[in-house]
Amino acid sequence: MEFSAKQIAEFIQGEIIGDENASVHTFTKIEEGVPGSLSFLSNPKYTHYIYSTQSSIVLVNRDFIAEKEIKATLIKVDNAYESLAKLLTLYEMSKPKKVGIDPLAFIAPTAKIGKDVYIAPFACVEDHAEVGDNTILHPHTTIGSNAKVGNNCILYAQTTIYHDCRVGNNCILHAGSVIGADGFGFAPTSEGYSKIPQIGIVILEDDVEIGANTCVDRATMGATIIHKVVKLDNLVQVAHNDEIGSHTVMAAQAGIAGSTKVGEWCMIGGQVGLAGHLKLGDKIGIAAQSGIASNISSNTNIMGSPAFEVKSYFKSSVIFKKLPEMYTTLNNLEKEIKELKKKLNK
After folding, report:
1. Is 306 in the same domain as 317?
2. Range of the domain at 60
3. CB of 80 within 8 A of CB of 61?
4. Which CATH number goes with the domain that contains 184?
5. Burial zone of 325 (CB within 10 Å; 0-12 exposed, 13-18 middle, 19+ buried)
6. Which residues are catalytic?
7. What residue ranges of the chain have pLDDT lower than 50?
8. Are residues 111 and 69 part of one domain?
9. Measured between alpha carbons, how far is 119 from 140 in angstroms, rounded to an integer?
């Protein structure tokens, strides 16, 4: 499917600089551009590529000013990266989608299946489970008994939704993700550890995306809740009774211990660890590999393990690098003081 510069500009409300009839049928990175492809420029580090790229059309921000001739047709927009996302979404939606239930899928007689769904071979929908309209279940996906999956969802291969859990509309769950496994609840006894039954559920609200091999554990009682538009990367662990506020994003290998509440619009970096029973406010930024052991107020950026305010962390890191020199200086000062004391005592 081809689109002209004019069609693209109308869709994203952009200004064309060059040939409005230039057409594209695919996307490429600006440094790997080929004729017939669309690229974008938003990071200044890649500006030099715009003068040599072979892409037919390039999206740029409105404040971009060319320093020399550019072969490609430009479309100026308010935010090139955001406009690219809109175009990629349109491109994805234009792809044909499968519909129907494969004969090798298992659907329990009591399950409820919506309209225009696709259920692939070896997918399993158990007793009294519900699958919404236009939802896609890829091979080996399992929907447990009494679980509900909303409309327009995509569950990739080997995704597992445990019994009674709830998945909202427009959610994407990538391969191997597990929603509703038992929380890590064990009571120490004289003979070892006694398992505490986990009788709660998991609730994913609308427009949530869960990365590959990410786990969201069911609550001991009540619900583990992932609010709307939350995005979890691959290999993220969310423990029992956690609650993650809307629009929060978590990068790969981050982990949250049980009963912690994370606010809205937070950004949590890779390999961040959050202790249990904490409360984090809204719009918090946590740098990668930080360790969080206490509550955090809203509108705070922190870093380190244990984590503290970013500016203070950077100042401390400068001092940390100088510790060997400071240690040597301190030893020399101690020696000098001892010598001075000896002289004074004489």
Report:
1. no
2. 3-94
3. yes
4. 2.160.10.10
5. exposed
6. 240
7. none
8. no
9. 10
